[in-house]
Amino acid sequence: STQNRVFIAVIGAGGVGKCFLGQLADLAARRPATRLSLCYITTSKKAVYNKDYSDISITGALDSLAASTQTPLSIPAVVDYLAAAPAKVVLVDNTSSQDVADAYPLILSRGISIVTPNKKAFTGSYKHWQDIFTSATTSGAKVYHEASCGAGLPLISTVKDLVETGDQITRVEGIFSGTLSFLFNSFAPANPTGAAAGKWSAEVSKAKELGYTEPDPRDDLNGMDVARKLTILARLAGLPVESPTAFPVESLIPKELESVASGDEYLEKLPQFDSQMEELKAAAEKEGKVLRYVGSVDVTTQTLKVGLESFDRSHPFAALKGSDNIFSFYTKRYGSNPLIIQGAGAGGEVTAMGVTSDLIKVLSQI
Ligand code: NHO
After folding, report:
1. Are 179 and 306 spatial neighbours (Cβ–Cβ below 8 Å)?
2. What is the DSSP string of 187-241?
């Protein structure tokens, strides 16, 4: 019978995608009542699929991909292939592709559900945001994107629960970037211990060596990743934010280095500008505070901003460790003591967990 069979299509098998496949294999083993049939898997170069929809082994999927001579289908062809499958389909978008994100309204309108950590679809125009959710409502397909903000931390589900139970979110603020969290926790620790903090440029190089930053660290330091995540939370809290560039975002890249050709050249020249960040750090210290890179949305005044702020050493934002994220939700019900969510906000396994938990939600609804 096809009753308890669900087809899974996976686009993207990089850092997050590989971890997701491990979690999917585990889920399939623990959930014998549903047959999770992997029917399509692709990277940007190679694909594996069978025209008769016969199962691709989940545990062998990466090896099959490596050995495959099939190339990816075009997006319209994938949509046709999946829409014709003989049972419900969930598409897992583990890419950061704009092309895939642009196709969400089409994919959903054909009855294919989507789970994804990809921020692009939810940070385009407000009209694209509306098209996504309207298409889903009309066709009955589901769309979940928990890991598009704060990796596996339950942020999006929490915002939805607050809104749907009739609470009013008045303000959200947080440390949205794993990379920037790490940088300020090391550069300006609330409780310095032992080794002195390095210069700003040395901490940026260290973050890159540890694999926290994007290949070009400027992609983290320009604040756009934070602006995208803030846009998503603000829209869920009820604000029709037009785009992640529609509000002030403070870039941490010195003007002189904005247009240097490569990330390597940026890192090479960054020490010449260390005094800028030292001065900001010293000014905060004079008031007994530490610098943190924060995103905030005031729902009441419809004000969004992303940038540096100073916090008392006893503030929860000051005491963060490693590359953790933290988010405070001020609401009518919670009053002046916010609901706080904190923990790892980057990394393959925790991001994949957000995707897998979304898949479990979809499986219970389709
Ligand atoms: P990779 O490792 O580059 O893998 C991308 C895969 O997609 C590759 O297999 C590539 O071949 C495939 N691909 C790309 N375009 C394609 C196309 N058009 N068709 C088919 N395949 C295509 O990327 P990741 O690291 O695995 O990331 C995947 C997605 O998860 C991205 O959208 C990313 O933004 C999102 N994500 C990742 C993380 C993380 O920690 N790695 C997080 C959240 C979401 O919370 C995390 C975070 O924000 C980290 C952030 N940098 C921070 O806070 O510092």
Report:
1. no
2. HS-SS--SSPPPPHHHHHHHHHHTT-S-SSTHHHHTSHHHHHHHHHHHHHTT---
Which of 10, 11, 16 most suits a substitution to test ligand 1, by most atoms within 8 Å of the C-beta? Answer: 16
- Do 45 and 14 touch, CB atoms closer than 8 A? no
pLDDT single digits (tens) 275-324: 999 999 999 999 999 999 999 999 999 999 999 999 999 999 999 999 99
Q: pLDDT per residue over 59-71, tens digit each?
A: 999 999 999 999 9
Reduced to 3 states (helix: H, G, I; strand: E, B; else coil), residue 160 is helix
User: Using CB atoms within 10 A of its CB, is residue 196 exposed (0-12), middle (13-18) or buried (19+)?
Assistant: exposed
Query: Is residue 346 in contact with ligand 1, taking CB distance under 6 Å?
Result: yes
Q: The tokens 């789970």 sit on which residue?
A: 115
Atom of ligand 1 nearest to the CA of 97: 15
What is the ipTM, given to two decimal places?
0.96
The SS3 of residue 101 is: helix
Residue 112 has phi, psi (to 5 degrees) of: -95, 125
How far away, in angstroms, is 213 Cα from ligand 1 center?
12
Nearest to 85 by CA among 36, 52, 48: 52
| Distance (Å) from CA 178 to ligand 1 centroid | 14
Residues designated as active site: 229
